C-alpha cells in the first residue's frame, strides 16, 4: 500500500552540497518525490515539527540547527515509504548508522545527521500537513 513520508534534507546537507546525492538515492530506490521545495523555516514551524522532543536537553540546539539555513522539504511516496526511507537514512547516530545508508556514509554527528524522515504513517501525515498544508 502506498504511503507518504516527509523527508527533510537538513541545513548541514544543503550546506555541504549533498542535496543531489540524497535525491539520487531516493529515486534510485524507486520512491516517488511528489513535492519538493527549498526553504528556510521559522522557529515556530521547527518547534511544531520537533514538538515531541520539547522536554529533551538537546531540543533548543535542534531548533537552532534546523533553522540555521535553508533545508529541502519533500513528500516521498511509495509502498513502505516510511520504513523504507528510515532504512535509506540509517540510524539517528551516524556513528551507528550502517555503511551504505546516507547517515552512515556521510555524517559523524548526531546533531548534524543530514536528513529527517517521518517515523510513522501518522507522524508523516502530521508533518506533511505542517510543511505542505495543501498536499
Ligand atoms: N545532541 C543530540 N541530539 C539528538 C539526540 N537524540 C536525537 N537528537 C537529534 O534530534 C533529532 C530528532 O531525534 P529523533 O526523532 O529521535 O531521531 P530521528 O527520528 O532519527 O531523526 P529525525 O528524522 O531528525 O526526527 C535527531 O535527528 C538528532 O539530530 C541526542 O541524544 N543528542
Ligand atoms: Mg524523528
UniProtKB/TrEMBL annotation:
<comment type="similarity">
    <text>Belongs to the NDK family.</text>
</comment>
<dbReference type="InterPro" id="IPR034907">
    <property type="entry name" value="NDK-like_dom"/>
</dbReference>
<keyword id="KW-0597">Phosphoprotein</keyword>
<feature type="binding site">
    <location>
        <position position="10"/>
    </location>
    <ligand>
        <name>ATP</name>
    </ligand>
</feature>
<feature type="binding site">
    <location>
        <position position="103"/>
    </location>
    <ligand>
        <name>ATP</name>
    </ligand>
</feature>
<dbReference type="GO" id="GO:0006241">
    <property type="term" value="P:CTP biosynthetic process"/>
</dbReference>
<keyword id="KW-0547">Nucleotide-binding</keyword>
<dbReference type="GO" id="GO:0006228">
    <property type="term" value="P:UTP biosynthetic process"/>
</dbReference>
<dbReference type="GO" id="GO:0005524">
    <property type="term" value="F:ATP binding"/>
</dbReference>
<comment type="function">
    <text>Major role in the synthesis of nucleoside triphosphates other than ATP. The ATP gamma phosphate is transferred to the NDP beta phosphate via a ping-pong mechanism, using a phosphorylated active-site intermediate.</text>
</comment>
<keyword id="KW-0067">ATP-binding</keyword>
<dbReference type="GO" id="GO:0046872">
    <property type="term" value="F:metal ion binding"/>
</dbReference>
<keyword id="KW-0460">Magnesium</keyword>
<feature type="binding site">
    <location>
        <position position="92"/>
    </location>
    <ligand>
        <name>ATP</name>
    </ligand>
</feature>
<comment type="subunit">
    <text>Homotetramer.</text>
</comment>
<dbReference type="GO" id="GO:0006183">
    <property type="term" value="P:GTP biosynthetic process"/>
</dbReference>
<feature type="active site" description="Pros-phosphohistidine intermediate">
    <location>
        <position position="116"/>
    </location>
</feature>
<feature type="binding site">
    <location>
        <position position="113"/>
    </location>
    <ligand>
        <name>ATP</name>
    </ligand>
</feature>
<dbReference type="InterPro" id="IPR036850">
    <property type="entry name" value="NDK-like_dom_sf"/>
</dbReference>
<keyword id="KW-0808">Transferase</keyword>
<dbReference type="InterPro" id="IPR001564">
    <property type="entry name" value="Nucleoside_diP_kinase"/>
</dbReference>
<keyword id="KW-0546">Nucleotide metabolism</keyword>
<feature type="binding site">
    <location>
        <position position="86"/>
    </location>
    <ligand>
        <name>ATP</name>
    </ligand>
</feature>
<keyword id="KW-0479">Metal-binding</keyword>
<keyword id="KW-0418">Kinase</keyword>
<dbReference type="GO" id="GO:0004550">
    <property type="term" value="F:nucleoside diphosphate kinase activity"/>
</dbReference>
<feature type="domain" description="Nucleoside diphosphate kinase-like">
    <location>
        <begin position="2"/>
        <end position="135"/>
    </location>
</feature>
<protein>
    <recommendedName>
        <fullName>Nucleoside diphosphate kinase</fullName>
        <ecNumber>2.7.4.6</ecNumber>
    </recommendedName>
</protein>
<dbReference type="GO" id="GO:0005737">
    <property type="term" value="C:cytoplasm"/>
</dbReference>
<dbReference type="InterPro" id="IPR023005">
    <property type="entry name" value="Nucleoside_diP_kinase_AS"/>
</dbReference>
<feature type="binding site">
    <location>
        <position position="58"/>
    </location>
    <ligand>
        <name>ATP</name>
    </ligand>
</feature>
<dbReference type="Pfam" id="PF00334">
    <property type="entry name" value="NDK"/>
</dbReference>
<keyword id="KW-0963">Cytoplasm</keyword>
